[in-house]
TrEMBL record:
TM spans (from-to): none
Protein name: Gamma-glutamyl-hercynylcysteine sulfoxide hydrolase
Catalytic activity from the UniProt record: gamma-L-glutamyl-hercynylcysteine S-oxide + H2O = S-(hercyn-2-yl)-L-cysteine S-oxide + L-glutamate
Functional pathway: Amino-acid biosynthesis; ergothioneine biosynthesis
EC number of the protein: 3.5.1.118
Domain Glutamine amidotransferase type-2 as annotated: residue spans: 2-250
Protein task: Catalyzes the hydrolysis of the gamma-glutamyl amide bond of hercynyl-gamma-L-glutamyl-L-cysteine sulfoxide to produce hercynylcysteine sulfoxide, a step in the biosynthesis pathway of ergothioneine.
Keywords: Glutamine amidotransferase, Hydrolase
C-alpha cells in the first residue's frame, strides 16, 4: 500500500504541503491513520512538480524512506510549484526495481500514482497486459502492479481518452481481472486532478488558493471531505466532481 497526494493551486513550497503539516505525507510514511493494509511506507517515495512555463514535470524519487532523505527536506524547503503529485510507498512484494518502482510515474505532462495492490499479481493481469503493444510493455519502468496500471492508463490517454475515463476504465478492467484488488489511482497534468477510490481512503480539500486530493488529510482543516468508496474524482481549482464507479459484472 501507499499514501499519495496531488494539488493544484497558487505556488507553494513543497515542504509546506508534504513535510510541515502535523499529519503530512512525511508522518503518513510511518503513522498512516486510514491505510487499509500495511503500517509503514518505507519502500520508496517520490514527488513530481511543475515549473512555470514548462508542461513537463520534474521528478525526484528514491528507494528509501522519505524521513531518511535530508537532501529532499532541503530541496522541499525552497522549491515552489503550483501543482505537484507525491507518494510514499509500501511494496506489495519484494523486488529489485529500486526507485524505478516509486511513484510518481510520468510521461509528457502526466504524473501518476497507485495506492493499493493487484490481487494475484502478476498472473491475474497477464491477459490484460497482453492488450498493450509490445513497445509499451517493454517500456515499463518497473516490474510492479503499479507500473502496469500506469501503462494501461497511459495507453488510454494516448488514444485520446480524458483523464477521468482513462482511470475509470482501467480500474474496472483490473477489478474484473483481479477481484479483491485495491485500486486507488491518482493522476494529474498540472491543471486537473483525477483519482479513484477502490479499496482505500481518499479525501479532498478545496480552498481559495488550491484543490488537494489525498489519501488522508494532512491537517485538521474542517473543509476536508471523504470520498465515498468506488468513486471517480475529477477536480481543478474551480470544481470537484464525484462520479460513482460501477463494479464489474460477475
Amino acid at each position: 500500500m501507499c499514501r499519495h497526494i496531488a494539488f493544484v493551486g497558487e505556488p507553494v513550497a513543497l515542504g509546506e504541503l508534504l513535510l510541515r503539516p502535523g499529519h503530512a505525507l512525511l508522518r503518513q510514511s510511518w503513522e498512516p491513520r486510514t491505510q487499509a493494509s500495511g503500517v509503514v511506507n518505507a519502500d520508496g517515495f517520490g514527488v513530481g512538480w511543475y515549473a512555470e512555463g514548462d508542461p513537463v514535470p520534474a521528478r525526484y524519487r528514491r528507494a528509501g524512506p522519505i524521513w531518511g532523505d535530508l537532501s529532499f527536506a532541503d530541496l522541499a524547503r525552497v522549491v515552489r510549484s503550483g501543482a505537484a503529485l507525491a507518494a510514499v510507498r509500501s511494496a506489495t512484494l519484494p523486488g529489485a526495481d529500486g526507485e524505478a518502482a516509486a511513484a510518481p510515474f510520468g510521461s509528457g505532462p502526466w504524473l501518476f500514482s497507485h495506492n493499493g495492490a493487484v490481487a494475484g499479481w502478476p498472473g491475474s493481469l497477464a491477459a490484460t497486459a497482453g492488450t498493450l503493444p509490445a513497445e509499451e510493455l517493454l517500456s515499463l519502468e518497473a516490474r510492479t502492479d503499479s507500473a502496469l496500471l500506469w501503462a494501461l492508463v497511459l495507453h488510454r490517454l494516448r488514444a485520446g481518452d480524458a483523464p477521468g475515463p482513462a482511470l475509470a476504465d482501467t480500474v474496472r478492467e483490473a477489478a474484473a481481472a483481479a477481484p479483491g484488488s485495491r485500486l486507488n489511482l491518482l493522476l494529474t497534468d498540472g491543471v486537473t486532478i483525477a483519482a479513484t477510490t477502490w479499496g482505500d481512503s481518499l479525501w479532498y480539500l478545496t480552498g481559495p488558493d488550491r484543490v488537494v486530493v489525498a489519501s488522508e488529510p494532512y491537517d485538521a482543516d474542517p473543509r476536508w471531505r471523504a470520498v465515498p468508496e468506488h468513486t471517480l474524482v475529477t477536480a481543478d481549482r474551480v470544481d470537484v466532481t464525484l462520479t460513482p464507479l460501477k463494479e464489474p459484472s460477475a
